[in-house]
Amino acid sequence: MRPIIEFCASNIGHGTEPLKLKLEQNPEYDVVEYGCLNNCGECYLQPFAMVDGEIITADSPAALEEAIEAAIREAEAWDNLEID
Q: Cross-referenced InterPro entries, in alphabetical order (predicted)?
């Protein structure tokens, strides 16, 4: 199953737009942007996204990218455990 990465349009002020555009180029991901993800506290404070419904935050867009990739790797590892 492809991971679903959700971005909040209101969080673009933290520099998440280029990251969203980059991740959209990866055919292994489903990337979606919403006007609001109902996480205003996170949205106001720092870059964030949701990966398969889990909030991922970071201090910068570059750190957010790393955190998203780590969350995806962790989910894939759990999926592989369930299959074996």
A: DUF1450
